[in-house]
Amino acid sequence: MIPPTGTTATRTRAKRGDGDKLREVILDAAEHLLLETGSQEAVSIRAIADRCEVTAPAIYLHFADKEALFLEVCSRRFRELDSWIEAASRKATDPLDELRIRGAAYVSFGLEHPEAYRLLMMGRREGRIDDPGMEAGRDSFLHMVESVDRCVKTGALGGADPYQASLVLWSGIHGITSLMISFPNFEWGERDQLVEHMLDVLIEGVLST
Amino acid sequence: MIPPTGTTATRTRAKRGDGDKLREVILDAAEHLLLETGSQEAVSIRAIADRCEVTAPAIYLHFADKEALFLEVCSRRFRELDSWIEAASRKATDPLDELRIRGAAYVSFGLEHPEAYRLLMMGRREGRIDDPGMEAGRDSFLHMVESVDRCVKTGALGGADPYQASLVLWSGIHGITSLMISFPNFEWGERDQLVEHMLDVLIEGVLST
DNA sequence: ACCGTTAACCTAACGGTGCTAACCTCCTCA
DNA sequence: TGAGGAGGTTAGCACCGTTAGGTTAACGGT
Fold first, then answer.
1. Strand C nucleotides, any atom under 7 Å to a protein CB
2. pLDDT at residue B51 is higher than 80
3. How far is CA B101 from its chain centroid?
4. In terms of Cα–Cα distance, which of B86, B93, B175, B197 is closest to A165?
5. Quick check: helix, strand or coil at residue A198?
6. DSSP state, B39?
């Protein structure tokens, strides 16, 4: 928990049409504090405001409430996850290799940004309808479906249903990622080896069903 | 969020050696409120105290802090999960059937007690060492290893390493459970069918690796 | 050059939170 | 018949998310 300093805000007020500049600054501050403290609840509105050199209520000029703020941070991070995976997948030699690389990249993203991953995948979305993070996440999932689809088209995954197979693959990969985040002290053995084993099992399993 | 009533405590004070009775009452109240509100943060110490007809500081006579309280609720629930699975597994006809039943029971427990599952598996254990919930969870996991072991011994799972296979099976089953909890509005299709498919993939995958 | 409008903030405050220090009260045992 | 400790209480701290309402400064119009 980062206590507020109590010092008065010193940020020079934005010009007339530049209100959105603070908005970006707030999002950056929130994201940094999230990664520093390790949890959404531990990042207070006041701490974010402090870092932006602004008073707490100023946040509410740009975001409806705390959840909306973090939902937007979430959305940003989702896009980052997606491009992280897309970047890794470009090194693939064939569709099946690409699928494995995507899976491994997914896990490494989660374990290297555990708090972001928590926010994205393990958080509580409450009753929020207009969920931008969810939309970006769906895009990312659809990229995976396409990747599976390419495998099916080349026969690398047999005659599996791409959507169904994607659900299973995502679940499996997410499962290992989230458990390693939740229970870091569990005896997982060597991480990369476990991930590879998981990918083996999932792909072989999809192939033979 | 359940607001405190502000009414004075009316609970008749426990007798000399019966301090632990309130402890149990507190745990029950916390568990109920957790299931009602849907999240640990939404259950305040004051709300728990209110329900027990006791003032808030009385809680701290029995628990070090809020986290310790919910950690104990967690531990209770873990044992419940374990016995839930054990009970279901008794209907099994053979080791492999038992493994499938255990998996399906695991998922159904999670989806029927989502908030408890969240607390158990998707929560943040902070830096807590003496984690009783973790201990009970480990026991439950070991029961699964034993079940896998029986499959291996009868040849139903080939020559797989029971521990490694259990890690993969647990991850897969947890993955599907936690994702369905986190994203209930996602297009999962028919739940039981997806779970069965997941079990097919995992078991076939373990068999052929 | 002045004026009204308004975007972009601020101050003060409300009710809630986890948690602690200090007090009280009643039961038990010597 | 007291002493003492178990099992509470009252009062209060520092912080939380959030809101109502005031302040300041940049703009367009005249």
1. 7-13, 15-22, 26-28
2. yes
3. 17
4. B197
5. helix
6. S
Question: Half-sphere exposure of A159 toward its Cβ, with a 13 Å CA cutoff?
Answer: 0
Query: What residue in B sits closest to A117 (Cα-Cα)?
Result: B122
CA–CA–CA angle A67, B174, A120 (5° rounding): 25
Q: Distance (Å) from CA A14 to C1' C2?
A: 24
Quickly give A154 CA vs C2 C1' distance in Å. 76
Collect all residues of chain B within an 8 Å Cβ-Cβ radius of residue A39: 124
User: Are A198 and B171 in contact (CB < 8 Å)?
Assistant: yes
**Cβ burial, residue B99 (10 Å; 0-12/13-18/19+):** buried
pTM higher than 0.85:
yes
Rounded distance between C-alpha atoms, residue A204 and residue A158, angstroms: 10
Q: What does the pLDDT read at residue A7?
A: 46
Q: Kindly report the nearest CA distance between residue A125 and chain B, in angstroms.
A: 7
Q: What's the gap between Cα B2 and its chain centre?
A: 23
Separation in Å, CA B208 to CA A60, A166, B102: 56, 20, 21
Q: Are the beta carbons of B136 and A166 closer than 8 angstroms?
A: no
Query: What are the tens digits of pLDDT across the range A109-147?
Result: 999 988 889 988 998 776 565 676 678 888 999 999 999
Footprint of strand C on the protein (CB under 7 A): A 8-9, 11, 13-22, 54-58, 61; B 1-4, 13, 15-16, 43-47, 56-57, 60, 65-67
Tokens (6 digits) for A106: 């997914």
Cβ contact A182:B141 at 8 Å: no
Q: Is B93 on the interface with A (CB under 8 A)?
A: no
Read off the tokens for B170.
């647990």
What is the C-alpha radius of gyration for chain A, rounded to an integer number of angstroms? 20
Contacts of A38 in chain B (CB under 8 A): 124
3-state secondary structure B100-124: HHHHHHHHHHHHHCHHHHHHHHHCC
Buried b vs exposed e over A70-98: b needs ≥16 C-beta within 10 Å? bbbbbbbbbebbbebbeebbeebeebbeb
- Does residue B89 contact residue B98 with C-beta atoms inside 8 Å? yes
CB contact under 8 A, A122 and B182: yes
Please tell me the predicted confidence (pLDDT) of residue A75.
87
